[in-house]
Amino acid sequence: MIDVVLWDVGNVLLHWDPRNLYRSVFDDHDEMERFLRTVWTPAENLRCDAGEPFASVISATAATHPHYAAQIRAIGDRWIETIGGPVDGMEELLGELARAAVLQVAVTNFSAETFPLVGHYRHFDLLDDAVVSGEIGIVKPDPRIFEIALERAGTSADRAVFIDDSPANVEGAIAVGIDAFVFDDATQARRELVRRGLPVDHRDGA
What we know:
single chain, alpha/beta, Rossmann fold, 2 domains, 5-stranded parallel sheet, 11 helices, globular
């Protein structure tokens, strides 16, 4: 019996990609890709997700790469442009679970500074709680973030399911006994939740 659904946010509920911003910053695609591979890399994002202030990470990165200072500052000044909008079908799926009174909690690697910027999306009105890495200083796939989510939800690992687009994060949840699967799209997520007995409509191909 599953009584809580734990959701990742980036690329599960909302499209997120720094390229959404940096395509308008760089004229050259290859230079943008080099920048994201060697300057503002996933490691810098993770530092922010772990709770380090954006300003500190931006300052340190700009000091190391001064010729890219303006482009680095853009991630702080224009971060909201990294969001590409809602993932198709997910608001509807969350709404069905909410109407069935299924507890839903976000478990997300997200900066405490930027998480409030996406609060206008209706997905977050449908969630009962959000465990945000930048607020607690623990990032997925650390097992402790899942333990905190279970404690706050008042349930146990065997009564939860976790959905994330990252295989490593899914493995982190499985390691603490949570049923979990890698997210592809809303149709696949709906199908997997139906298989687990959750009260959502089964609409393959919808």
